[in-house]
Design a protein that fits this description.
Radius of gyration: 27 Å
Bound molecules: zinc ion
Strand content: 5-15%
Number of domains: 1
Number of helices: 11
Shape: globular
Order of helices and strands: HHHEHHEHHEHEHEHEH
CATH architecture: 3-Layer(aba) Sandwich
Helix content: 25-40%
Strand order of the largest sheet: 1-6-5-2
Length: about 290
């Protein structure tokens, strides 16, 4: 008997799940089953954007890619620029040797390239605090291995402007900072504030120092929390160094005389740059602070 459209029929027709013979095509003989297939497009997009980045832990991903830690001497202790064998001595490397830097020591997890770059971008744009924490803990290990003090340390993340924080939805640098603080067993202080300016990524290298200059300051009352301590400034990516320079400057110049014992700068990824770093003006910061 032929079934009319919409007519209730019981029992339902048996689903033919027998294997298909070579060349056989069952076609659209089970239209109801086909309608019940879920729409995969939006879910696949969510899986790619949200679930894949955490499907494999950050540390494991970086280990697999060989980006989980650098050999001793892979970067300069003063400016964290990549150096080759014998290119660095106690006064720094060719990029920083004849210049003063406004911090005492620079460390990094690695060069901002390959898998490390992918992970940093995911932490930056997918709002995963846990992945940021994982990166921070690895950076904390680098700091410990580099001889960071075990006591009297305060972790200060490079701040994000309120406007950018609202747009991003998460302060990923603070998440990295929490990982560093957790690994070092040190407190974290959001000691700096920042006025909104165009992203450093959108301005030319030569304009970056001017773009960030004067935009950060020490919060009122934050000087007491850094006085006599080793401040570990934490940032995600360093290219020209202008942001860390401005942050160091604000710590030295603010605080009503509450100077830190030392400043370490800890960056997850340092952009490989051919030629010399733009470190002009570093001497002025130290001189002004004295
Ligand atoms: Zn150097």
């Amino acid at each position: 008997m032929k079934q009319a459209d919409g007519e209730f029929v019981w029992p339902p027709a048996r689903v033919d799940d027998s294997p298909l013979a070579p060349g056989e095509d069952r076609g659209t003989e089970h239209p109801i089953e086909q309608k019940q297939q879920p729409e995969r497009g939006w879910w696949s997009a969510i899986e790619r954007a949200w679930l894949c980045p955490v499907a494999v832990p950050v540390r494991e991903r970086l280990e697999i890619a060989g980006c989980d830690g650098e050999a001793l001497g892979a970067c300069c202790d003063r400016c964290a620029t990549t150096v080759g064998a014998g290119e660095e001595d106690e006064f720094g490397c060719a990029s920083c040797r004849d210049r003063k830097v406004p911090w005492d020591r620079a460390v990094r997890l690695g060069a901002y390239e390959d898998e490390l770059r992918e992970v940093i971008l995911e932490v930056k744009f997918t709002r995963f605090r846990s992945a940021g924490m994982a990166l921070g803990r690895m950076l904390g290990e680098v700091l410990r291995n580099a001889g960071a003090p075990s006591e009297g340390v305060v972790v200060v993340p490079i701040p994000m402007s309120t406007r950018r924080r609202l747009v991003r939805g998460v302060d990923h640098t603070a998440a990295i900072g929490r990982g560093v603080a957790s690994e070092l067993g040190a407190p974290m202080r959001m000691a700096l504030t920042r006025r909104h300016r165009p992203s450093q990524r959108t301005v030319s290298m030569s304009a970056r120092a001017g773009n960030v200059s004067g935009t950060m300051r020490l919060r009122r009352g934050a000087g007491a929390g850094i006085k006599g301590r080793t401040v570990v400034l934490v940032d995600d990516v360093r290219t020209s160094g202008a942001t860390l320079r401005a942050a160091s400057s604000s710590i030295f110049l603010g605080g009503d005389g509450c100077r830190p014992a030392a400043i370490w700068v800890a960056t997850v990824g340092v952009t490989p740059v051919r030629g010399r770093m733009d470190l002009a003006g570093l001497a002025r910061i130290r001189t002004a602070a004295k």
